[in-house]
Design a protein that fits this description.
This protein is mainly beta and 91 residues long. Helix content is 8%, strand content 43%. It contains one helix and four strands.
Length: 91
């Protein structure tokens, strides 16, 4: 798999920075959309979670919240991983 150079367009309150590739474990959230069954576009969010070791590819980004909040809240974010091989996922 070819690695793609990442960059940000513009900069948030927190300057552009890069997180190296990492492997770790924590609660891992999944969010799905469930249609209400009506004719409209009403959906509800359903969340589930489990814990397993997984990887994260390198990430370059910027944001408006602090780096401390980013680190503290990481485990609260929904993640996408290959559950057959979560430490080898390209996500």
């Amino acid at each position: 798999m070819t690695e793609i150079r990442q960059r940000t367009e513009g900069e948030g309150k927190e300057p552009e920075h890069t997180h190296p590739a990492t492997e770790h474990g924590h609660d891992h959230w999944h969010v799905s959309h469930h249609h209400s069954g009506g004719l409209g576009d009403d959906f509800e969010h359903r969340a589930s979670w489990h814990t397993h070791v997984h990887n994260h590819a390198p990430l370059t980004h910027s944001h408006d919240y602090s780096r401390e909040d980013e680190e503290r809240d990481h485990a609260k974010e929904a993640h996408i991983h290959d559950h057959t091989a979560p430490t080898e996922s390209p996500a």
